[in-house]
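Dear support,

I submitted the protein below through the web form. The confirmation email said the job was done, but the results page showed an empty box. After a refresh the structure appeared. I'm attaching both so you can tell me whether what I see now is the final result or a partial one.
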Amino acid sequence: MTAFWQWWQQLPHTLDPVLLRLGGFEIRYYGLMYLVAFGVAWLILRHLIRRKEVNVTMVQANDYMFWAVLAVLVGGRLGYVFFYDLNYFLAHPLSIILPVSTENGLHFTGFLGMSFHGGALAVAVVTIWFCRTRGIRILEFGDALATAVPLAYTFGRLGNFLNGELYGRITSMPWGMSFPNSPGEALRHPSQLYEAFFEGIVLFLLIWWLRKRVQRSGKLLGVYITGYAAFRFVIEFFREPDAHLGFVAGPFTLGQVLCLIMGLVGVVLLVIPEIKKKKTKKK
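What the results page shows now:
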């Protein structure tokens, strides 16, 4: 068992985050994980349509995925800019839209920094617009998205792990890992894997089980938003705070503050169907 833990603890040092290098251009596993995530969400949504669990056509689903992918990329990027590192990007505005750096010569860097909350907010806006312009019930469609998104999110966090970023705080637990990009040689919580498991796999299995057992009028969406916020809030206690931000409200990180707001939205969505149900009974 000792040999296993030694292998496990040093695993990040054996992983090359770059799949292919062409001069200064790199294809990273992180970017490929985004493609896999979008593909998984699209396949699950198509499955729900074929099973007639959501009143949307395949053409509409394909059209929506284009706008959703655009929203994730643009919203995630702008969310990181405004939520996490505004001062840096005000000083380097081209870094917002260009995946290259001119420091020490021109070289490809990719887009450094994406925010889940920024992407989620952008997707919410696009989804409301899409549904209203096409006569689709927003909450019903939101329930379908809540079923499709968690498993896709798992691959996003695996991408963070392969990229050696968003690692956890120092730990003495045997499952801690040594990350090449972290300061010092201490073992750290593999918080990316915690998130991939709880915010992705566990939440997906819960919603998949609930989808035929609860009233479809935003409840699954409420479970997803509340569940993600709760899991992320707890896991943030094991995740290393962003070096340039640290703690923003006592012992809490910015991610936890945003999760509290997100959780309130999820609770509201869980309450709405109950309010509607009570009004219907009174009539």
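Response: this is the final, complete result; the empty box was a page-load delay. The chain has a mean pLDDT of 88.
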